[in-house]
Amino acid sequence: MQKDFRLEWRQRAALSGMLLYVGSTVFVCYLSFALRGGELPVPAWNALFWIILLFTAVNAVAKGFLQESQGRLLYYYTLVQPQAVIMAKIVYNALLLLGLALAGFGLYAVVLGNPVQNMPLFLANVVLGAVGFASTLTLVSGIAAKATNSSTLMAVLGFPLMVPMLLLLIKVSKNALDGLEFDASRSSLLTLVALNLIVSAVSYLLFPFLWRS
């Protein structure tokens, strides 16, 4: 994790590019709706937010393994266990996505309004979404890095895996926008937690075999 943070700090242009991507996408939404005098409906607000976060996650996590050279991976192989590598990547990407998600939500709420009535539920859902996207896409990034056309392969493998998670996230967000209590979203939140734990466990168990390939 320390290596990834240092590398991100040295390549600040990449982080700036991700922030610019979030800002430009929100601005396009503003030009499409608010600037023309139309009020953005709550379901559309919810859908656009998660679309922005989904594509931001793909762009942010894709470089996790794709930027690592074969020589550097071989060097890691002599230093640490593969489980340490994959768990560090997941935690780092989760923190990165959480920061981008909160920054994007702040800008999104300022530009297009904030219809969220149950903010603690919405923020808890964003945290679970960031962790879920990070864990899923990190493993997919490791698989794609071993193949040709890795960027295309990551998109092909990643989106189908995230559809069930995305449906749950949108459902919980809709409940938060409507002002429903935690009890109305308890089962969905527990399912999201279970999905995150399953993906992390699968990554922990299977990544050593991918590491040796």
Structural description of this entry:
The chain contains 9 helices and no strands. The longest helix is centred in the middle third of the chain and has 31 residues, at 82-112. It is mainly α and 213 residues long. 34% of the residues are buried.
Q: What number is the mean pLDDT? A: 83
- Number of separate helices: 9
Q: Please count the beta strands (DSSP E, at least 2 residues each).
A: 0
**Which stretches are poorly predicted, pLDDT < 50 over at least 5 residues?**
none
Distance between the termini: 23 Å
- Going by helix content, strand content and strand pairing, the class is mainly alpha
Pfam families: CcmB (PF03379)
Subcellular location: Membrane
Family: Belongs to the CcmB/CycW/HelB family.
Keywords: Membrane, Transmembrane, Transmembrane helix
